[in-house]
Amino acid sequence: MSITQRLADFFKRKKTVAEGGGEQAIQKQVAMGKMTARQRIEALLDPGTFHEYDLFVEHKAEDFGMDKKNLPGDGVITGTGEILGHPVCIYAQDFTVAGGSLGIAHARKITKIMDHSMKLGIPLIGINDSGGARIQEGVNSLAGYGEIFFRNSQASGVIPQISVILGPCAGGAVYSPALTDFVFVVDKISKMFITGPEVIKTVLGEEISMEELGGAKVQAEISGNAHFYALSELECFEQIKKLVTYIPWNNTKKADKFPIKPPRIQIPIEDIIPKEPTQPYDCRDIIKSICDDSEFLEIQEHWAKNIVIGFVRINGDTVGVVANQPMYLAGVLDVDASDKAARFIRFCDAFNVPLLTLEDLPGYLPGVDQEHAGVIRHGAKILYSYSEATVPKITIIIRKAYGGGYIAMCSRHLGADFVFAWPTAEIAVMGPEGAANIIFRSEIANAPNPDEMRKQKVAEYTEKFANPYRAAANGYIDAVITPQETRDYIIHCLKISNSKSVRQIKKKHGIPPF
Amino acid sequence: MNQDNPINTLNIDDTPYETLLTRKFIQRKPYSPDNPNKILAFIPGIIREINVKKGLEVKKGTQLLILEAMKMKNSIQAPFDAKIKSINVEIGKMVTKNQLLIELE
What is the third-level CATH fold of A3-246? Predict the structure, then answer.
């Protein structure tokens, strides 16, 4: 063969494989409102940066007529590329090839790119669109999943791992996304479940659609499995691009510094907070009034809305924000809120992102359902994560800091480096009403006019304890600051915490209540 | 995704806070204590056998019925000495989780 012939042969081979499942299968994919695996990679990565590997990998399965089946790329595309100049390893399952089913060759392509991302210390992005295990390959297919899960766990806290669910991701396969740091879903396209509607119907007699069982909305709003929800694949890719700018390449690096911008929205913070401590407001207005360009990337926006988490930049540096949300459930901590915040805190800690906590909560959510759902063990997660975190930790007490909530929300006692309170802060064991009712129970009961006495005692307690000065007198908060000074204080504290080091007790690992 | 309800109140430590409620909070089930006289399906499945009749006196541990679920035949037994007040299922019928199977007295 001449060199020209060899080249022609190469181009022909490449073209055939790159077409994936062929014209008909691609049309089917499009009809489902989905992009093809290759289009997705191209849309997500910077133009011309994708470099593909293992294009010519073939399966070696022989049973059930598999020896006669040719599966281009074995149903997955793998490679490296860049997102806004950030290097990433990426794989995308190709639903047009045997439904994106996972056989051992398919899995080995994925584990190979995962190994790359670990060695190179760059983020891993997995685009999931697969019918599940390739049944014909039997236990080999299961082995493939296991090897992926193992690497997801090994890579956890070393490189950021992002899962994008753009199709079905069912059965054991969903455990790979569950082990990663951020899960992206798209309305009407993403479907995640352990047992599908068919199985549920035959075994349990319960009828439910895929969408209601494990669609994007369910994962974003009810289960909390998803971190980002988009209405289209392109919107989803924009979200990923944004996220990548906030996080570092790996656990030995810091996120990129960006040009410093003042907050774009400058609502006087006094105008955000209502006078009465029992009135709600949107804590995101405070976040936006503090951070660069008022740009806040919220995570798990639709789930456990009583706590808000996400990334901002302050003075050009990435900061992870955890804020109680008085707008929902008065900002209380509950099972889901603790779970949501704790995982985020651990991500920030693992990837050198300083933590900013904005506190305003009346305590934990009362209820049988909460107690029976294990609010003790779930609530403990937030204490554990804050205590364990060694990144700079700054806490601002906006308004209420009552009881267990005060301790949990990155108090001095859990190792906060800086704790500031606004003059509006109320740091106390509980709210004035509740406290007065307990402390002055007999005085109130025995008074000629109990209501009058209660009012008087509540006022007394409010006057004495519903302020930041008791805590300040004990040194539990470092300074009482005004809302206007807040950004400046945070910038200063981040600057002087730059070389913070914590002596840690040597251990293999802790045993968090997860 | 906005099906938010209007401002509500949530009482924490004797203080009513004005706030929005989440869908999950609104849909939470009110707690009701277990009634030991009611034998409920602990798992969804199919009734394969019924071994007792209405009005029968049974000893603790007597097999009342067999509930097949996830390919396992589960023997449902009397939790204490009792009389069968009612049988609320039929052989071959599918039952959902927590469905009433048998009532004792």
Answer: 2-enoyl-CoA Hydratase; Chain A, domain 1 (3.90.226)
